[in-house]
Amino acid sequence: MNKSNEPKTDATDFVIGRHAAHETLQTEGAKRVNKVFLQEGLKSDSLHALQQLAKAKRIPVQSAPKNKLDTLSDHGNHQGVVLAITPYAYADLDDLFARAEAKQQPPFFLILDGIEDPHNLGSIMRTADAVGVHGIIIPKHRAVGLTSTVAKTSTGAIEHMPVVRATNLVAVAKELKQRGVWLFGTDMAGTDYRQWNAKGAIALVIGNEGKGIAPLLKREMDEIVTIPMIGHVQSLNASVATGLLLYQAYAVKQGSGELP
């Protein structure tokens, strides 16, 4: 049997979960939605609201058995709703600078060097959106991209946070420095993050969950910051560490950090 004409079921083509679906349908992301699948026999106010929102935007709504939604969502926690969408579009570096300029703010970027866990990336996107990061830069290879799991974990932040997917992060780092952005990496030894001067145009660089920042990229850093720890476990989850650092940068930029 020739399956070449069958529709694609790549996991990156779906949004799962009620909150993520609602956020997608309420934003520009609705333009990428091809169909809304709702679990048959499941009744709730939130699912009814999603159905009405989809119909208002003239997006087809289909009732489907739970086992179909389980398959489409790769057995994720879909909560009775799956959106079939075109793949997420990536931004380019100029888009990130334009976003900062439109807000009349110095660039505030986040570079993720090889984050592999989609839950970490989704959580990081939520925090980045909360503190006003203008965009995230990730590598094209050996790192998670914008998948359905990332979308669900981000609880809608994926619709507001532009992401650049770069072939070479070292080249990106060099270009950022040429354009006046200071690069701050993270490691076990460096400036205490509470003394980090995060004012002005900056990019925070977070390394891989296990290996940290790649050596060649680390050479491009203007300064290394660290989170001091006194416990037995001398490491933090990537999304937790990123959250601490982003909120410190936010505090400094708002004038409420420890720096004058």
TrEMBL record:
Entry annotated with the keyword Methyltransferase: yes
Domain RNA 2-O ribose methyltransferase substrate binding, first and last residues per copy: 14-91
Coiled coil: none
Keywords for the protein's UniProt record, in alphabetical order: Methyltransferase, Transferase
Pfam families assigned to the protein according to its UniProt record, in alphabetical order: SpoU_methylase, SpoU_sub_bind
Keyword flag Ribosomal protein: no
Superkingdom, natural source: Bacteria
NCBIfam families registered for this protein in UniProt: rRNA_methyl_3 (TIGR00186)
Family named by the database record: Belongs to the class IV-like SAM-binding methyltransferase superfamily. RNA methyltransferase TrmH family.
Listed name of the protein: 23S rRNA (Guanosine(2251)-2'-O)-methyltransferase RlmB
UniProt organism field: Loigolactobacillus binensis
